[in-house]
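#structure-requests
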Amino acid sequence: MTDEESTQSQGTGDRTAADRSEATSPAEVQDKEDPGDDVARRFRYQDAYGVILLVGSVAGDLEYTHIFCEHHEDLLAALPGDRFDAYQIKTRNPERGPWKLGDEKLRKSLARFVDLRSRFPNHLGAFKFVSNAKFLDSDRAPEKSPVRVAHAARAADSLEDLEEPFAPAIRALAQKLSADKTEVDPDELFNVLAHTEFIDGPSLEEFESVLSHDHLSRLPELSTAGASELNGIRDELIQQVRQASSLAVSDPRRHWTPRSDDADDPYILSKRVTLEDVRQTVASGSGTVFRFAPLSDRIRPRDAEQDLSRFELKLNRAGLGSSLETMRRRTVAAESHLLALGHAKPEDVDAVISQLESIVQGVCDDARLEASAGDRTFGPTMLLLVTQRLRTTARDNPQLVHHSPYECLMGVAGLLTNECKVWWSEHFDIAEAS
């Protein structure tokens, strides 16, 4: 090829590249060279797992009272009695295969556990290694399986009592860790492995969806929340864990409090996320806010010449005409609320409705019995008793009514009124009164 031909060919190549650049915008092409977004996703995975622990604790499935983020460990979960479970969260591409005992990141995590146990011997509970990737569990090479080695260590009293081939594997691992410039005693490593659990975390592709719909949706306050509400609360909680994982401290006390190892050190407190933080976030963004629905045609106010509904007839006869509109709106809203619950949790809705009806029916019956002992028109007195008692129940015993707000309970009373299960006056013939 001559220099001229080379120049012409190069020019043609330049024009082709230019044509391509004009035809395609960078906004339309994925950048597969920059690993920054993948790194960010893996950090988010760790933060999301912290939220999983907090939500599990709020739900009562775990005993943690709060967590520390990037404080001695990836996550340090506090148990009652000033004890802690230490978490290492590690992501791994599935094509690399399952975790083996000798894998570099796993053995370094074990070395961190050994160091932590030696520094705080009376305060550590369990050590947890969590990953999106699986763990080797093989009969052919059990000494390479983290799960098998940890199980064998838990079943033995000491390293000397450990059966083959696990004792040599632990000694070899301790030697390898010592070669990594982390001096590790085999007996200490054995003790750590005896208290180590290997946990399958959610997948790297689905962890956000899993957090929203498998974990947050289990909280009673979010039982009817839609996807967008769940995702919004999820993102806020993840951000709280991310903030606690950083070095940023917003507490103004940092400017007059000396740095120390005291529990009130604002730098240490900034690393903490509590169950109350989660509850407040859920409450502020919860889908359980009781919203009044538009009035349906079924119980919309009727013209004067039309027949009154039995709902209106019963309230008017009880002397509750002034409360009719409020009761009507609460009734419609409660119906919408329960329909939404049925859509979100079809397997639970019958039990929830039965419980709400039983509680509200009992309150109404008791209030009617007390109120009817006085004046013949006892509706206002009965309504006062019902509102007081349902408000107290919603506030003091939310679990009893599946965390339903007071307005919903009053709406259920309206539904029971419409079904003639609750009367606010002496019984009368609805057909004759219409």
